[in-house]
Amino acid sequence: MERALAEARLAAAHGEVPVGAVVVADGEVVAAAGNRTLSLNDPTAHAEILALRAAGRVLGTAQLVGCDLHVTLEPCAMCAGAIAMARIRRLYFGASDEKGGAVEAGPRLFGQPTIHHRPEIYGGFCEQECAGLLRDFFAARREI
Questions:
Q1: In the chain, N or C terminus with fewer CB closer than 10 Å?
Q2: Rounded to two decimals, what is the model's pTM?
């Protein structure tokens, strides 16, 4: 999660919402990314999506079976769907997202009977630090 936090800080430094994600295979980081929706003018450029895409390129496969995803914020519905499609083994996330999350909040995508793949889910990793990054980022935006 430390690497995901570093990606989130880098995203914030570039004016992006501070979310970071890391894909791990066999105990090694194979891909890492932070949000880049603004810099890429791409609403799908969430940290999770970018990390999954990069991991697919590195590993030469779209199905990341046996890989784990570490992300600083509970994934939204789009990212949760991508996680399922990628066949991620385990999802570790930091801060919960009551408003936009889709894992433990909102639609609880992995609990739906129509979902094809359900990763193991572990929330609350470095939760205070992850939530603090987001809180500080948005507090600074309100001051502008």
A1: C
A2: 0.96
